[in-house]
Amino acid sequence: MMNLLMATYLITGIAGFIGSSLARAVLAQGDQVRGIDNLSTGKTENIAEIMGRVDFREADLLEIQAVQSACVGVDYVLHQAAIPSVPKSVLDPLGSNRSNVDATVNLLVAARDAKVKRVVFAASSSAYGDTPTLPKHEDMPPNPISPYAVAKLASEYYMISFYRCYALETVCLRYFNIFGPRQDPTSPYSGVLAKFITQMLKGEQPTIFGDGTQSRDFTYVDNAVEANLLACRAPAGEVAGRVFNVATGQRADLNETFRVLKKLTGYTGEVKYAPERAGDVKHSLADTSRAENYLGYKPKIDFEEGLQRTIEWYRSQENVAGGRPAPDLGVPSRI
Ligand code: UD2
């Protein structure tokens, strides 16, 4: 029998690595999950073991009718669907805009019309761009560099606008380089840690774009999952129409990250260097105090613990996550 206290969550991008982690967490707290994914970068393997417990719909957020029907009866939307890549957006800004902005506006209209309680959005630290001040605080003026960063920031503004104009409660979580199990390592646009870990486990040489002094506030996926659940529960007066950093408040540069990974994976080779990527941000580090104060967020898993868990997961996968690690080809560079 259905529990009337159960909430229904719609997770966009449910077959992606963050979406599929969220789905598991929402089911674990006893709520219902509906998911939508066009499987452009997501994979049904990521949700295979929970497929029987979720209402999965293979559809694109650009199909307005599918989105409208997906929003019916939903309490919370966790909007993760995106083409999440700086270099891909540099190659294809129109595609980035369609998947990251047009799709978001479609979803917002459908969520508003279906009277969804709250929409939590996967925003991006890329919005800060190359402003010199560290750590990044939400009140700093954004300065996006890549089309991807612009698209994520535009979607944030849409979120805020839908709160102001239609009282649809929206919360933007600016993710700082999320990594962890199920992140796809097989595309040239994959996140650096997914690529490096799978390459190094196979004894293949990873490539650093630039001199390796660029730094990131790498954030283990469980921290982002926790932030989403907290963002649904927090009082509207404190969080609706607002932006929150989701990160650890620590950063590591790529050279030191490579050294830590060498130790953890047992890789004995060296790294190679290639030209810096166009659209790349040099340093990224978050001030997480707003999320701590208003969401009750605390990063529970630090960088090294997150790396250990992630390496363990890739090791547990036959054939290292079912595919070859990403080649280092086809990414635009600055030179
Ligand atoms: C951006 C956002 C992040 C998230 C992500 C979505 C920033 C600071 N972060 O991540 O929050 O939205 O986009 O994808 O804007 N690199 C190598 N070798 C490789 C792959 C990458 O050296 O094989 C470098 C890359 O040039 C960059 C760093 O590693 O300096 C991180 O790259 P990434 O693609 O993992 O993530 P990033 O920072 O573009």
- Beta-strand percent range: 15-25%
Approximate shape: globular
**How many angstroms does the end-to-end distance come to?**
62 Å
Spatially, the strands of the biggest sheet line up as 3-2-1-4-5-6-11
Return the CATH topology of the domain at 8-178 and 221-246.
Answer: Rossmann fold
What share of the residues lie within helices?
25-40%
**What ligand molecules are bound, each kind once?**
uridine-diphosphate-N-acetylgalactosamine
Structural class: alpha/beta
**Secondary-structure arrangement, i.e. CATH architecture of the domain at 8-178 and 221-246:** 3-Layer(aba) Sandwich
Largest sheet: 7 strands, parallel
Order of helices and strands: EHEEHEHHEHEEHEEEHHEEHEHHH
Poorly predicted regions are 329-335
CATH superfamily of the domain at 8-178 and 221-246: NAD(P)-binding Rossmann-like Domain
